[in-house]
Amino acid sequence: MTALTSLVVLYSLVPLAWLVINATKTQEGLFTSFGLWFDDGRFALWENLRTTVTYDDGIFLRWLGNTLLYVVAGAGGATLLAVLGGYGLAKFDFPGKRAVFAVVIGAVAVPGTALAVPTFLMFSKLGLTNTPWAVIIPSLICPFGLYLMWTYAAEAIPDELLEAARVDGAGEFRTFFRICVPLLAPGIVTTLLFSMVVTWNNYFLPLIMLKDPDWYPLILGLNAWNDQATTAGGQAVFNLVITGALLTILPLLAVFLLLQRYWQSGLAAGSVKQ
Fold first, then answer.
1. Which burial class, exposed, middle or buried, applies to 14 when counting CB atoms under 10 A from its CB (0-12, 13-18, 19+)?
2. What is the pLDDT of residues 113-129, one digit of tens each?
């Protein structure tokens, strides 16, 4: 098992190491040196970083701001809706609950790419294409996050605890925010990270929704830089693409490291017999 785990870790870290190493090379050094070792001639990391954020009037920083906007509004909103909906579906009974469950499971089974074209046609009729809303609004719908919070809330929050809070006079909103949200923290963080990764790496939806490069997210903007090498009169900037890719993954790595303590706090959930 240790050997198998070591192979998986190696498989995961080699691409990251390649990215870090090649971000230190110039455009010429990428083709004249070994891919998994530094260029003996020049260490160009700081120059690449400076050029990446200033190239084309600093468009990279605009793409970064767009991505943060889509993540905060889209992934944050999707997490909020998933938490509220999952808690309500887990702890309240109402007519049609089985039908809602069937709809949620069916939505989880449908790939997002299958809905991209219908979503584009609908947003085109509404006049919302080529605007940030065309990326934010579809990102608010996360069936997997709703299902995850539904199942997690059903197990993490005892019904007896809710009954005790209501007997003591706590309203539904106070019970939810003061008692339930802390118990749901590991599930909320998991849903948030899942939504963040999906929104941060979302490529196909912005590709069909956005025409103005000023509204591109990072992943779409870096692909546009990469395609410059194949266009007539375009300038190859592979060193900037690699450096930009390295800058793109750093926020996700930081978020994972900062929030992992919430996962650790949830590992003991259910370990004590009630």
1. exposed
2. 788 889 999 999 999 99
